[in-house]
Amino acid sequence: METILNVDKISKSFGRIKAVNQLSFEVMKGQVFGILGPNGSGKTTTLSMLLDLIPPDNGQFSWFQQLPSKESRKRIGSVIESPNFFPYLDAVTNLKIVADIKDKPYDDIDEVLQLAGLYERRFSKFKTFSFGMRQRLAVASALLGKPEVLILDEPTNGLDPQGIAQIREIIALVASRGTTILLASHLLDEVQKICSYVVVLRKGIMLFSGNVKEVLAVSDSVELSASDMPGLTAAIREFPGFISFNEAEGLIQVHFSMTVNTSEINAFLYQKGILLSHLAEKKRSLEQHFLELLQDTP
Asked: What whole-number distance in Å separates Cα of residue 244 and Cα of residue 236?
């Protein structure tokens, strides 16, 4: 896969506050890449450095396998701050102004408005737009000129459930067209639903990085049931990594100190003469994994 962004040990301090500390990661072409962390974790600072809005104190990064430049910046669309348009102008006129600033043609204004679900309101003044519509217009403006990369900082922040769903649909559609997306958010559920890869930050330090599906595949507990429950509870204690179990309503939920393989558990118990009637993984959500990481870090 082609590397779109390579970040190598970038750091940024504001006085005594270390906003970003030796951060490194790679974004590959076509990924929907999430930077996840609570408020104050360094997400916006990281994106601001990557967009050359502020310089890093140390480290470096490259776009499209080249040092950042004015030309590479033209290949990137971004929404970093709250939407800022002229309130008494309509959506089309506002986007024409953005296109002029970006030195982009007007050819795809209708297309990005349709993508953002705003085509029917294209001649409405910006001041009449709801907060969710303003967010969608900001995304539309970032898509002018068909950028290869779209950077979004907390795109669903402050939106109601309907607005969140609309932004999520737009991101999914843009990603399906091959655009690489870099998304910063503190909303764990949204990252879990939208992103294919995630980096978790806490106070500017990367705690974890990995494929979201791999994160979701982590299982440290399993539900079991058998006709011989006393034999099952005795036998499962001998399985490697066993910690404890809870029993309720004819099932036991067994906790392990490591990732477990259900087929290995089934084979192990079969050799012990235990025939299972129920076997199911209890997978951790990204939120559980995220909170565990925060708890384990001083």
From this structure: 9
